[in-house]
């Protein structure tokens, strides 16, 4: 693939991180608030650990949906931005290149390094993260988990496919669904996500 992941990260990382008086930053067409990841982790992890299994599953589904919506709109904003058109678009020659570019862009956020393990155009994406930020903390605080805890990476994996292979934005969200099939929070060596087109 002609996508230079290191170059994507370098370009996005050298943009100034400056926020206004409300703490809002803008770059690559994305508006973000600077906040502590630790706060999000504590709230989510403690709530889930206190709930019965069925209720926890419902909360986790809502977390996935929230991240999917955030990722879908955020990555669309990035890929239609001036910075993307100037620096990233010249590297893209196919829909598959765009998937690789979106994955590379995600690595700017510093929550773990995601990579494409397998891509079947229009049908399936398998992504892996060796150093995801949250699973290690689940293990440290709560011990081995019954299933994966990387809600963000799981939903992001689906959002890439939704944007590239789903119906034209903004109607493509939910075209693909992702499952985390291995996670360091369960004692696995790697976190792995499989996004597949929903069969109708």
Q: What is the general shape?
A: globular
Please give the oligomerization state of what you see: single chain
* Strand composition percent: 15-25%
Give the CA-CA distance, first to last residue.
Answer: 31 Å
Low-confidence stretches: none
Number of strands: 6
Q: Please give the CATH class.
A: Alpha Beta
Count of helix runs: 7
Strand order of the largest sheet: 3-4-6-5
Whole-angstrom Rg: 17 Å
- Which percent range fits the helix content? 40-55%
Order of helices and strands: HEEHHHHEEHHEE
Q: Largest sheet, described in full? A: 4 strands, antiparallel
CATH topology: Muramoyl-pentapeptide Carboxypeptidase, domain 2
Number of domains: 1
Q: State the CATH architecture.
A: 2-Layer Sandwich
How does the helix and strand content classify structurally?
alpha+beta
Report on this structure:
This protein has 200 residues and is an alpha+beta fold. The protein has a single domain, classed as Muramoyl-pentapeptide Carboxypeptidase, domain 2. It has helices spanning 5-13, 37-50, 53-79, 82-88, 95-106, 133-142, 151-165; strands at residues 24-27, 30-33, 114-120, 124-129, 176-182, 191-197. Strands 3-4-6-5 form a four-stranded antiparallel beta sheet, with helices on one face. A two-stranded antiparallel ribbon has the order 1-2. A hairpin with an 8-residue loop joins strand 5 and strand 6. The relative contact order is 0.15.
Please sum up the structure shown.
By secondary structure, this protein is an alpha+beta fold. It is built from seven helices and six strands. The chain has one domain (5-197): Muramoyl-pentapeptide Carboxypeptidase, domain 2 (2-Layer Sandwich).
């Amino acid at each position: 693939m002609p996508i230079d992941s290191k170059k994507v990260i370098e370009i996005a990382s050298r943009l100034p991180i400056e926020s206004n008086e409300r703490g809002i930053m803008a770059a690559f067409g994305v508006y973000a608030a600077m906040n502590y990841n630790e706060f999000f982790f504590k709230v989510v992890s403690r709530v889930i650990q206190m709930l019965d299994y069925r209720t926890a599953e419902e909360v986790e589904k809502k977390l996935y949906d929230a991240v999917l919506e955030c990722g879908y709109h955020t990555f669309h904003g990035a890929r239609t931005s001036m910075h993307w058109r100037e620096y990233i678009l010249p590297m893209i020659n196919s829909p598959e290149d765009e998937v690789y570019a979106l994955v590379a862009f995600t690595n700017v956020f510093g929550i773990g390094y995601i990579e494409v393990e397998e891509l079947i155009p229009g049908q399936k994406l398998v992504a892996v993260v060796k150093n995801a930020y949250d699973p290690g903390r689940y293990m440290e605080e709560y011990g081995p988990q019954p299933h994966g805890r990387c809600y963000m990476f799981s939903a992001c994996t689906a959002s890439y496919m939704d944007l590239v292979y789903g119906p034209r934005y903004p109607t493509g969200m939910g075209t693909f669904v992702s499952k985390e099939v291995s996670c360091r929070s369960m004692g696995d060596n790697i976190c792995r996500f499989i996004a597949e087109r929903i069969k109708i």
